Amino acid sequence: MKKKQKKIASGAALESEIHSHAEFFDHLVQLIPSRFYLQNDDADSKPWFQGLSKAAKASLKLQSKRNIKLSRRQRFDPDHETTKTPLADEENLAGNRVDDSAKDESKEKSVTYEELRQRLRRKIEMLRGNRGEGRVEGKKRRRSDENDGGESRNDEHEEEDEEEEEIIEYGKVRVGDDDEDDKSGKKKKRKLSKVHELERAKKLQEVKKEKPSVAERESWKAATSRAMGYKVHDDVRLIKESMKRDKKKKVKNAEKWKDRVQTQEKMKGDRQKKRKDNIVGRINDKKMRKIAKREKKLMRPGFEGRKEGFITPA
After folding, report:
1. Separation between Cα atoms, residue 66 and residue 173, nearest integer Å
2. Does any domain span residue 49?
3. Structural domain of 110
4. How far apart are CA 285 and CA 236, in angstroms?
5. Alpha helices (H) in the chain, listed in sequence order
6. CA gap 173, 196 in Å, rounded
7. Which of 25, 49, 118, 164 has the fewest CB atoms found within 10 Å of its own CB?
């Protein structure tokens, strides 16, 4: 009996001890904020602003700010404190609902996927059919154009294409009536030489000194030409420097050409000399072969050397 009473007493003490430990751990868990161990759905519930107007975006932002302030107040409110145990109970209660809703959503998703596939197939078939019809209609139109003045239609298409094509010249801007001059088909002026440009620049300088109105007009003309991207040669000093550079370049090129001609002549002479030496060498080799062949015929079997006179003196 005493042993049984001791066992019962020890079991009751163990149960009370376990209960106290559980309360202690629950209290520790309650000290931890719930956002560290529970899933937060705020990230998923954030509004997506794409496609909304400015007023709708502003209202959603204002509502989100209010919700954030309210959640902060509830977090620090002791009356609205949510512990781990009631949250766990709520999660357990909502588990079955989530499973049922997930099944329904999976069914709806499967249905929507099948519908989307069917729509895609229909659209592909429709596009294929339209593509074939478009080809047939295009052929019919071409035939009708060929029968009913196809040449005029082609001319119209060519004119439209020419109008659509835009030629862009970087660094050049059309100013004034240049478009009309280009369309009229006037020939471009031939480029003047440096000597003529120098004479023209000198005359312009003299005229500018005498007549300021002409000077102003020429300055405006030069400015518009530079704005259009053309080079204006109206400075005497620069033209002279350019002529000097051209002269030096010409002299340098002449020297290079002279050296090149000399090297070519030297190479040509070396090749001719080599060819002549080869020809002379082949002729000498041929002569030596003939001499060797003749000497071989004059040799007698059993004797060395050539026969020179009689063996026995007379």
Report:
1. 58
2. no
3. 19-32+60-147
4. 73
5. 2-31, 54-76, 84-147, 150-164, 178-184, 194-210, 212-228, 236-298
6. 27
7. 164
Q: How many other C-beta atoms can be found within 10 angstroms of the C-beta atom of residue 239?
A: 19
Question: What is the DSSP secondary-structure string of 62-96?
Answer: HHHHHHHHHHHHHHH-STT---HHHHHHHHHHHHH
How many whole angstroms separate alpha carbon 117 and alpha carbon 217?
74
Q: What is the mean pLDDT of the chain?
A: 71
* Length of the chain counted residue by residue: 314
Do the domain assignments include residue 302? no
Strand partners, 306: 299
Q: What is the pLDDT of residue 259?
A: 93
Long-range CB contacts (within 8 A, 24+) of 206-215: none
Same domain (yes/no): 69, 138: yes
Token pair recorded at residue 70: 């309210």
Question: What letter would DSSP give residue 50?
Answer: T
Report pLDDT digits (tens) over 277-300: 999 999 999 999 998 888 777 666
Number of independent structural domains in the chain? 3
Does residue 91 fall inside a structural domain?
yes
Domain assignment of residue 135, yes or no: yes
Q: Are 174 and 228 in contact (CB under 8 A)?
A: yes
| Res 278: pLDDT | 96
CA distance 45 to 71: 14
Q: What is the per-residue pLDDT for 173?
A: 47
On the question of pLDDT at 20 being above 80, the answer is yes
Q: How far apart are CA 73 and CA 189, in angstroms?
A: 86
What whole-number distance in Å separates Cα of residue 58 and Cα of residue 313?
Answer: 146
Q: State how far the alpha carbon of 176 is from the alpha carbons of 180, 182, 221, 246, in Å.
A: 9, 12, 11, 35
Residue 275 to residue 281: CA distance in whole angstroms: 10
